[in-house]
Design a protein that fits this description.
By secondary structure, this protein is of the alpha/beta class. It has 14 helices and 14 strands. It folds into two domains: 304 residues, TIM Barrel, CATH 3.20.20; 47 residues, no CATH class. The longest helix has 23 residues. The model has no long low-confidence stretch (mean pLDDT 94).
């Protein structure tokens, strides 16, 4: 693992990652036997057909990218459980990282230029905020996922395509626990997915994501998937103005167009390269790459434009605030005082404490609403009793 060298590179120059993986794996027509009868579970190919996975990494390194993502997007509890192989989380994560590590080291040995491996930690298919799965269960599974990636040689942990801030937090804390358990020190990168609607899947604005995630001690925040670069610009602008940490962007090749042959991504390689070059200059990105629909040719042209470019200096002016699931609220007083409602504190309100201990959640919520109606600007919610 070369976490220190990757951190140093990201602080000084633009680093280029790879593009889409799933489509390139499928293009090689793996058989049902290759999938061990688990059709569509790409992570199984790390064990049964590492040669196929290698060719994807080789294709991206051949066009000049600095780092590749592991074939572990679905190596998490929720996704693997759908195939009844949740117990193979560590095995598939470690195998995916090991393949990428071997290819990265081979390319590095040829020309002396260091290549890095980003350990992909995908969102899974269950959202804890909606009650699909418990927070503790996915946090612990993400720790297993991360331990496998680190054991296989990942230089960073990339919590990507996140749609639910509680799921994102579970992945980040799982990653942190894995680093502690193994005594490792590599960057933890978070890449959130903002839909064409302008928010994450559950309605979170980019400001809420930044306010909630930056204090977790992550090394970088950015955007990937769902849209092309055009739709990401406003959200990147917010991050550039407010984030204290480095930024990344890995867009799709435009918004997908549905055809009789499936989804088609319309953005060509020159257009993606134009957009990433502009983002690097305007928003001070440190890490760029591609997501769905992007190919080695897309990334070859991005490499030609931006790799090795010095990171544009940003002068962020972050504003302290608090976030709900949906939005960030700056600590800005529009009135002469800030009223904080304290009746939702189990240590200060007997009524709230009893309702909480008896699981009368509607009563708890109504107490909060009463304070808002009475003019509270913020609520002190404390259930630590």
């Amino acid at each position: 693992m070369s976490g220190a060298s990757l951190r140093a590179a990201l602080a000084s120059r633009v680093v280029v990652a790879d593009g889409a993986m799933g489509t390139m794996l499928q293009a090689q027509d793996p058989t049902l036997e290759d999938f061990e009868q688990l059709e569509g579970c790409n992570e199984v190919l790390n064990v049964t057909r590492p040669d196929i996975v290698r060719t994807v990494h080789e294709a991206y390194f051949s066009v000049g990218v600095d780092c590749v993502e592991t074939n572990t997007f679905g190596a998490n509890l929720a996704a693997l459980a759908e195939y009844d192989i949740a117990e193979r989380n560590f095995e598939l994560s470690e195998a995916g990282a090991r393949i990428a590590r071997e290819v990265a080291d081979e390319f590095g040995a040829r020309d002396g230029r260091q290549r890095w491996v980003l350990g992909s930690m995908g969102p899974g298919t269950k959202l804890p905020t909606l009650g699909h799965i418990t927070y503790g269960k996915i946090r612990d599974a993400y720790q297993t996922n991360a331990e496998g990636l680190l054991t296989g040689g990942a230089d960073a942990l990339l919590v990507e395509t996140t749609q639910d801030l509680l799921q994102t937090k579970a992945a980040v804390l799982g990653a942190r626990r894995a680093l502690d358990a193994l005594g490792a020190d590599v960057p933890v990168i978070v890449s959130v997915t903002v839909e064409a609607t302008g928010t994450m899947l559950l309605g979170s604005e980019i400001g809420a994501a930044l306010t909630a995630l930056e204090p977790l001690g992550i090394d970088m925040i950015g955007l990937n998937c769902a849209t092309g670069p055009a739709e990401m610009s406003e959200h990147l602008r917010h991050l550039a103005r407010n984030a204290r940490i480095p930024l990344s962007c890995m867009p799709n090749a435009g918004l997908p167009v549905l055809t009789k042959d499936g989804a088609h991504y319309p953005l060509g390689a020159p257009e993606l390269a134009d957009a990433q070059e502009n983002f690097v200059r305007e928003y001070g990105l440190s890490l760029v790459g591609g997501c769905c629909g992007t190919t080695p040719e897309h990334l070859r042209q991005v490499v030609e434009r931006v790799r090795g470019t010095a990171v544009t200096e940003r002068r962020p002016q972050p504003e302290a605030g608090a976030a709900s699931l949906y939005q960030t609220v700056p600590f800005r007083q529009d009135t002469a005082y800030m009223a904080i409602g304290e009746r939702t504190n189990a240590n200060g309100s007997k009524k709230f404490r009893e309702a909480m201990l008896e699981a009368r959640w509607d009563d708890c919520v109504e107490m909060a609403r009463d304070q808002i109606r009475e003019g509270a600007h913020m609520l002190d919610l404390c259930v630590d009793y």
